[in-house]
């Protein structure tokens, strides 16, 4: 079963509603295992004991790893075998130094990327070159 960022987002949104977290702004990561919110005053008053010491209202603030909120959210994600995926930084795949421009996105289960550099380069292993017209057709389909 393929799980996307939107699926994880729905789980987190439901979790926040069920736990009376008022804010809609959050950040989550599973590589480093973190869950942070931009707490409203109400959120801060309710959860500051579960948050790290440097937490403040209207500032991205992380929950402690041993907090109930943190443990409960990650248990739900693990039980559903969900992973938070991060967008890769594709410049690391190209052995070029200097000015470059890139973009990367997923559409219908396919990852598309474009990369421009001031010098010539070879496509890295695993990349498949497509015609520019095909790439921009996908971009147009997404923008519709």
The profile of the biggest β sheet is: 3 strands, antiparallel
Query: How are helices and strands ordered from N to C?
Result: HEEHEHEEH
Radius of gyration over all CA atoms, rounded: 20 Å
- Beta fraction of the residues? 15-25%
Please state how the strands of the largest beta sheet are arranged side by side: 1-2-3
Describe it.
The protein has 144 residues and is α+β, with helices and mostly antiparallel strands. It has two domains: 5-79; 90-143, no CATH class. It has helices at residues 5-18, 41-47, 68-79, 132-143; strands at residues 26-29, 34-37, 61-62, 100-107, 110-117. The strands form two sheets. Strands 1-2-3 form a three-stranded antiparallel beta sheet, with no helix packed on it. Strands 4-5 form a two-stranded antiparallel ribbon. Strand 4 and strand 5 form a beta hairpin. The protein is elongated. The mean pLDDT is 86.
Q: How would you sum up this structure in a few lines?
A:
The chain has 4 helices and 5 strands; from the N terminus they run αββαβαββα. The chain has 144 residues and is of the alpha+beta class.
């Amino acid at each position: 079963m393929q799980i996307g960022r939107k699926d994880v987002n729905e789980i987190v949104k439901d979790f926040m509603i069920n736990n009376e977290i008022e804010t809609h702004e959050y950040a989550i990561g599973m590589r480093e295992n973190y869950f942070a919110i931009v707490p409203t005053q109400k959120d801060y008053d309710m959860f500051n004991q579960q948050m790290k010491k440097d937490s403040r209202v209207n500032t991205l603030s992380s929950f402690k790893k041993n907090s109930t909120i943190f443990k409960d959210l990650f248990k739900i994600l693990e039980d559903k075998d969900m992973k938070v995926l991060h967008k890769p930084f594709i410049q690391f795949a190209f052995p070029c130094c200097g000015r470059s421009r890139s973009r990367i996105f997923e559409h219908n289960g396919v990852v598309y990327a474009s990369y421009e550099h001031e010098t010539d380069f070879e496509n890295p292993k695993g990349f498949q070159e497509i015609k520019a017209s095909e790439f921009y057709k996908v971009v147009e389909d997404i923008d519709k």
